[in-house]
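Take a look at the protein record below with the fold in mind.
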Amino acid sequence: MSRLFHKISYSLRHWNEVGVSMQRKLTLYVACMVLFVFAAGVVVIQKAGIVPGSERNLGEALTVQHQNTVSAMTKQMDLLTARSISLSEEITRTMEQVLIESGKSFSDLNDDSELILDLENSLYGSLETVLRSNACSGAFFVLDATVNTKAECADTSRMGVYLRFSDLKAVGTANQHMVYFRGAADLARKKQIQMHNRWDLEFDTSLIPCYDTLLHFNRSRLAEGAVWTERFRLRDTWEDVTLLCVPVLDQNGEPCGICGVELSQLYFVLSYPASESQFGNMVTLLVSGEGRKYDLSKAMIGNAAGTYLKASGLIEIRSGKYYETASTGSTRYFGLATPLEARLSSGQTPMILTLLPEDSYHQASLRNRQLWYAGTVLFLILILLLAGGVSGHFSAPIVRSLKAMQLETPGGDGQSAGIRSGISEIDALVSFLQSRSQELKTSDLPPEIETMLQEFKGRVTRLTPAELHIFQMFIEGCDVQTAAERSFVSVATVRKHNTSINRKLEVSNREELMVYVDLFRRCGRLEELKDR
C-alpha cells in the first residue's frame, strides 16, 4: 500500500513533467471545477437542511400534521362544548315544563318512577339529536334524583339516560347502531331501541369524576363549567371513554345534574387515524399530567399502527430545535405538543401530541439518503462524461493542428499549414513554428555544428544491431524500463546496451545523448540516425 501511495505522490509532484495529453488535462480541470462547485452546493444544501431526511424536513412534516390535528381537535372540542351547553339549556326548559304540567317541583322526582319516566321520555329526543350529529360516540344526562332513596346505593345512584353507539366501524356515517346504556327500561321498549348488555337503570355518580364538583357550580355562564374527564373505563365494559360534562340548572338557576357527550377510545382511534408521512406513521394523543410527564393510561390515543405506542406508563417530553423528543422508557419519539384550551376535571391542562417513532425516522432517513447519494453519484458520472465530451470537442482541432505540424518533413508540400484549430493563439503558434522550421531546414548550419553532427552520425555506425535497436527506442522517448518491455529483454540487458551506446557515441549520460538527438530533430535530419 505504501508503495502505491509513493507512486501517486510522485506522479502528483511531477505532473508538469509527465507527458499527459491535452484532452486528459482539460477533462481533469473541468471535472475538478465542476466537483468543487458541486461540493460547495452540497455543503450549502446540508446547512440549509434541504437534504432529504434531515431534521429540518422532519420538523416541517411534524409541524404540518400537528397544525392540522390541533385545528381539527379544537374544532371538534368547541363543537361538542357548544352542543353540550345547548343540551343543558334545553334540559332545563323541558324539565321546567314537565314539572309545571305535573304540578311538582324537582325535589318531588325522588321515589316517583312515573314522573322520572315522563321526564326521561321528554328529554330523549334532545339526547338522540346530539348523538346523531356524529360528532361523538355517546350522549347523556344525569339529574340529582333517584327512583329509590331507600336502596343501599341510593347516595350515588342517580336517574338519567345514556345513549351510545356500538360496533363503530367508521366516523360520520349515517345509521350507526345505537344502544340504550342507562335509563328506564320502559323507555327503551317504547323507543324500540336495543339495550346494552351492561345496561343499568341509573348512573353510579361515584364513577363520574366531575359530578360532585359540578353540583356546586356557581358561575353565571355554563361554558365556565364545561369540563373533560380523563380517560377511564366504563363499568362492566371493556371500553375506555372521556366525557365532556356541563352543569344542568333547575328553574331557580341552581345545579341539579349534569349532561354532556362521550368520546370513546374507539371513536378517537377512528377520528384520528395514523397519518402516513415520508418518515413513517404519526400518532395523535390527548394527554394530561404534571410538568412535562404524562400518564398514557389516562390518555386518548389515536390509531397507533406502526408507532409501537401503548396506553400504559409515563411519557416524558423534552424540547428541541425543530421538534420535541418524547420517551416512554423503552421507545423514543419525535413530535410536537400544544396545550388545548379546555378544562380537565383533575385541574390539569390537556395537551395535544403528535408523535413519530425515532426508529421509523432513522429508517426512512437512511432510505432517503441512499437515494440522494445514488442520485449524486449518477450526477457526478454524467458530469465527468460531459467534461470529457466538452474537453474533447475543445482540444480536437488543436491536436489535429499539432499532429499536422509534426508530420511535416523537410521538403514537404506545407499542406498542413491550411489546417486550422479555430483558436487564434494556437494557429499563430503553429504558423510561427512552421515558418521557423522551414527557415531552419533551408538555412546552412554553422561549420562547427555541421561537423559535430557528421561525427556523431559516424559514431552511430559503430553500434551493433541490438544496440541500434535500443538507441532507436531512446530516440522515440522510451526510458530503460519501457525499452526493455518493448524489446522483450531484461532491464539489465538494456542497461548493458545503454552503457555500450554511451561509450561508442562518446557521451557521458542520457541527457547528453538526447541533446544530440534533439539537435538532429530540430534540423529535420532525424532520419539520418535511423539509416545505416
Notes: The two ends are 48 Å apart (CA to CA). The chain has a mean pLDDT of 82. The longest strand covers residues 240-249. Residues 358-407 form the longest helix (50 residues).
